[in-house]
Amino acid sequence: MKVKFITLILITLFLNTNANCQESNEFRTYFGIMDREFLTSGNLDGAGSYDLENPYEFGIRYLRKLTPKLSLETGINYLSSKVQINSNNYGTHSERHTHLKIVSIPMFVNYTIGNYFFLNGGPRLDFQNSGESFDSQSGFGFGIGFGGKYNFDKFLIYLNPNFKMHAVIPFEKENDQQRLTEFGVQLGIGYQF
Questions:
Q1: 178 by DSSP, 3-state: which?
Q2: How many C-beta neighbours within 10 Å does residue 160 have?
Q3: pLDDT (0 to 100) of residue 12
Q4: Of 41, 57, 26, 9, which is closest to residue 179 (Cα–Cα)?
């Protein structure tokens, strides 16, 4: 119920905000690459390890300006990676593969610095739909980034290095919860209207 209520408030805020600038909306699409790692809160001696192979992401973003410098940013993001699971049971080594797929909805604030730079960050709502061999990453996470952009007419290109952590508040809590942590960069194009 809380998730539905928070989502309803955010959607209402995005749709009903009036900005006093000519172009109050922006649509972006992007592709990203990242380095990922599962972090745990405890020390799990003898537990398996996870190697993420060929991780990538892509998505769309919608920005609604509140002031000339401040915008609300949301959209949908798709993450995908192959995962190699290495286990060490009583001196024998085994290896298997699975896939990690996560759909995320960011609820960010985006602040423009000068004409070419921006900060963005805030909570993310994550839904994992694969990879049952490790703790679910579904739940609330967060992301923060610093980027550069170049506008030409109503179009723009941008680069957004970022840090993200999933399952900070998981939907299903596990002992020694594994949290997917990412350092990545997104390259995208946008259109202001």
A1: strand
A2: 22
A3: 57
A4: 41
Our count of domains for the chain comes to: 1
**What's the full length of the chain, in residues?**
193
What pLDDT, in 10s, does the model give residues 66-98? 999 999 999 999 999 988 877 766 666 678 888
Range of the domain at 167: 2-192
Give the other-Cβ count within 10 Å of 53's Cβ: 11
Closest C-alpha to 106, from 135, 69, 63, 66: 63
pLDDT lower than 50: segments of the chain: 17-21
Q: Which two tokens stand for residue 121?
A: 């960050």
Burial 61-93 (b: 16+ CB within 10 A, else e): bebbbbeeeebbbbbebebebebebeeeeeeee
